[in-house]
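Key idea: predict the complex, not the pieces.
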Amino acid sequence: MINSGTENTEQRILAAARRVFLQKGKDGARMQEIAQEAGINQALLHYYFRTKDRLYEMVYRQIFDQFFQPLMPILEADLPFDRFLQQFIEIYLESLRKNPDIVHFIFWELRRGGKVAARQIRRRFRSLGPDNPLLKRIHRAVEAGEIRRVDPLHFILSILGMCIYPFLARPIISRVFSELDVLSDEFLARRKKEIFQLIWEGIAPGNENMEEK
Amino acid sequence: MINSGTENTEQRILAAARRVFLQKGKDGARMQEIAQEAGINQALLHYYFRTKDRLYEMVYRQIFDQFFQPLMPILEADLPFDRFLQQFIEIYLESLRKNPDIVHFIFWELRRGGKVAARQIRRRFRSLGPDNPLLKRIHRAVEAGEIRRVDPLHFILSILGMCIYPFLARPIISRVFSELDVLSDEFLARRKKEIFQLIWEGIAPGNENMEEK
DNA sequence: GTCTATAAGTCGATAGAC
DNA sequence: GTCTATCGACTTATAGAC
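Result:
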């Protein structure tokens, strides 16, 4: 067990760096704070990761990867479109609930160009063919008459926006409605239902209770 | 005209600070860069705004205020709900197009608690009564039978999410679809239409072309 | 009001002992 | 591998001349 202590330290550092970077961002984070959070000193940080840039790069990629990961399995299953939608929404909300800090970090980092994010997406999707499998799934549903003719890209942007936005706006929501917690079971169960119903039925008065899902 | 030069300089500083803070964030911004951007030196910055914190505070409030401002006039007009919705979407998309950098900045800053944001919202809405006028508008539409029974809060979160998300994800979108520009007339016109149709009709196959809006 | 020069402090990174 | 001590660069902020 030559390196047992080493791996432990390295993981502790990565975990600490992740917490600090997520909360403060790259510029706001301090190597000293990361060291302290990991229970070591600053010199040891540089021993393992040479520079702040390198350490950040590691954490950064891991975070981006985690953001797109949970959606993969649903794309491989072959469900009717309404079930697919419900699964998609539920899994994504659940994934966001587990890492609520990630969204702010991700979209802030995207200012820098989104190169890593785009590569991560492509890498994730590569196994499912050359074209974007999410777009393909929507397109297929349209062609099969499962849903009316929508623009697949805009449709995806709408779903993602509806899922992600409450987490982004969480600080405002909890201030404007002091009793409300975006991360609670109640809110998320309700959110899931409202997103699906809105997408599926719309709000036109004639559509009331057309389906009970 | 004793202070003519002064006001000019102050405004130039604020404009420069705004640009730099929006792009780099508070921690990433450098007083030197702001000075340079304003065409002055660093000492003069401190002469006008004493500290970086104070300067940031000014810019920060201005940016948050601007984010919620454009929605106000629509709430005062008395339109049928479908028209209200279309106006809301159009005006908000247009407002975001004019200041695409704002969204990343806003949601990143919200990590710190959203105190200023919440206060800004309340201040904006105060003139329209004690309750949130956006919620009230939705509620009224439900009671009047203009739309089916939706949860007003979730409905608002959905609209805002659909409007804001493309701007947040813009770097990814432009990389995954290299020909596509979120800020273009074509995209935004399409976006507006797709959001409204999705909200109004949903995607259930039976609803195809029920309305031509 | 505006400038140059610099003080005071912080931060990332390294040297060197153990 | 891990530590203490410290260097050197950068950054905010101020002193003082004009």
